[in-house]
């Protein structure tokens, strides 16, 4: 991480985060319509993708991925859990959030975890959730399933893998993921190996089991 991004991270992310959203917004100002005033049924503009990670490099990469490769959606990146809480609780943003992707194990610069964000999202059942994590434990998988999460992406990942992850969720309602039936950990699957029909092995070096099951992420009931 560069010294510059480290400094910005410690200053809190709101200013920087907003820029990502603004880049895209400026482009679409031409065909702007007052969506919020429309009264025909539910609003269809849930096009904001919230990205939360204590690592600003991940937030930056994920934001770029959404801006450049996920058409119709705008990223809103954060490194502080508190900022995401205010953003999601703000009534102005009701119906605007299409997806929240967070690092399920993060601790931000203010010492906060994602727990309060997850609690808020559990109450707002209509906001889809997905997670990334550098810790592929069965506990994290269970937690995400309980929350009605739609996907769990193991870190580290490239922008290409992240784009596929987000597109799967937005288009198909879930991103496929695999779990070792023996040790319970999330299995990092090499997609090329899958295409070649190679047997999937547990990525935990001490386990190496080939008893791999697909995780059943399902969209939570709209509430
Ligand atoms: Zn295993």
Count of helical segments? Answer: 8
Report low-confidence residues grouped into runs of 5 or more: 5-43
Give the % helix.
25-40%
CATH topology of the largest domain: Rossmann fold
Give structural notes:
- The protein has helices at 3-10, 14-28, 56-69, 81-89, 115-123, 138-146, 159-172, 191-195, and strands spanning 48-52, 74-78, 97-103, 129-133, 152-154, 178-180, 186-187, 212-214.
- Residues 5-43 have low confidence and may be disordered.
- The chain has 8 helices and 8 strands.
- The strands form 2 sheets. Strands 2-1-3-4-5 form a 5-stranded parallel β-sheet, sandwiched between helices. A 3-stranded antiparallel β-sheet has the order 7-6-8, with no helix packed on it.
- The protein binds zinc ion.
- Zinc ion (ZN) binds at residues 180, 182-183, 185, 202, 204, 207, 209.
- The site of zinc ion has 8 residues, from loops.
List the helices and strands and how they pair.
Elements lengths: L2 H8 L3 H15 L19 E5 L3 H14 L4 E5 L2 H9 L7 E7 L11 H9 L5 E5 L4 H9 L5 E3 L4 H14 L5 E3 L5 E2 L3 H5 L16 E3 L9
Parallel strand pairs: 1-2, 1-3, 3-4, 4-5
Antiparallel strand pairs: 6-7, 6-8
Helix pairs in contact: 3-7, 4-5
Bound molecules: zinc ion.
Structure in a nutshell:
The chain is an alpha/beta fold.
Overview features:
single chain, 223 residues, alpha/beta, Rossmann fold, 2 domains, five-stranded parallel beta sheet, three-stranded antiparallel beta sheet, binds zinc ion
């Amino acid at each position: 991480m560069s010294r510059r991004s480290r400094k910005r991270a410690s200053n809190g992310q709101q200013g920087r985060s907003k820029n990502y959203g603004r880049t895209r917004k400026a482009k679409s100002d031409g065909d702007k319509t007052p969506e919020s005033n429309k009264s025909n049924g539910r609003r269809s503009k849930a096009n904001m993708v919230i990205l939360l990670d204590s690592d600003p490099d991940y937030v930056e990469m994920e934001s770029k991925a959404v801006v450049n490769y996920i058409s119709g959606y705008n990223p809103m990146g954060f490194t502080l859990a508190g900022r995401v809480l205010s953003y999601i609780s703000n009534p102005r943003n009701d119906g605007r959030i299409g997806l929240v992707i967070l690092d399920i194990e993060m601790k931000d610069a203010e010492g906060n975890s994602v727990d309060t964000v997850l609690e808020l999202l559990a109450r707002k059942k209509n906001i889809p959730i997905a997670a990334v994590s550098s810790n592929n434990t069965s506990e994290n998988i269970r937690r995400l399933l309980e929350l009605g999460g739609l996907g769990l992406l193991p870190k580290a990942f490239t922008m290409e893998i992240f784009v596929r992850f987000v597109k799967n969720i937005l288009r198909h309602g879930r991103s496929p993921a695999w779990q070792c039936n023996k040790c319970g950990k999330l299995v990092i699957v090499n997609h090329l190996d899958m295409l070649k029909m190679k047997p999937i092995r547990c990525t935990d070096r001490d386990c190496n089991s080939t008893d791999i099951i697909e995780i059943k992420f399902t969209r939570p009931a709209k509430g």
